[in-house]
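Methods: example folding runs. The two proteins below were folded one after another, and each record is reproduced exactly as written to the output file, sequence line first and structure-token line second.
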Amino acid sequence: TSPIKNVTVNPLPAIPSITANGNTTICQGSTVTLTSSPSTAYLWSNGSTSQSITVNSSNNYSVTITDGNGCSNTSPIKNVTVNPLPAIPSI
């Protein structure tokens, strides 16, 4: 007979949430900071690996978190829109 082996199945971490420090529709030249819910490791869709990113370009951003057991989960997309500044008025 074979010895009994214990198998541990770790649950996935909760789906991460992304919060913004302001409006996600901003004017050209402005920034918005996106912050992930806490975890052990982070990988943003733009390649950043910190808990927060500061962005200044229109894009769809998401974050994949990895917990201490090596299990991962990905957030829903957070859309950031950057509107161009109006033309400089002539006098």
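Second run, written to the same file directly after the first:
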Amino acid sequence: LGIGVAEAGTDAVVLTLPLLANRNHKGTVFAGSLNAVATLAGWSRLWVELQERTIDAHVVIQDATIRYLEPATSDVRARCAGPDPALLDRAVAMLQRKGRARVALDVEVHDLSGQLVATLAGRYVVHRRQG
């Protein structure tokens, strides 16, 4: 897929996806590639947060809804800013108490002109590692 990391911090994760490696028969970015980069942006945002908090846990996607708004005719950037910090604090407290927590994240995918081409609303589950 050629996914790259443009930014990876606790403020946001931004991943890049090149058109050339993900072009469909219409010359636009394949929908499955948009879904993959958006899902990974959300996953990565949680992973960065867990690393910053020195929490050893697994992150998995539970479910997601993606909306394809416009064809992407250039490389794209998937950005996940993450939820409100208070929501993350609650999720971490739940993880410490029960061994798992759910976190809802929104991801926006823009083309190089800045046009919004897709959105993903995902629900991720964080599991405490066993052993």
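Comment on the second run: Helices lie at 31-52, 85-98.
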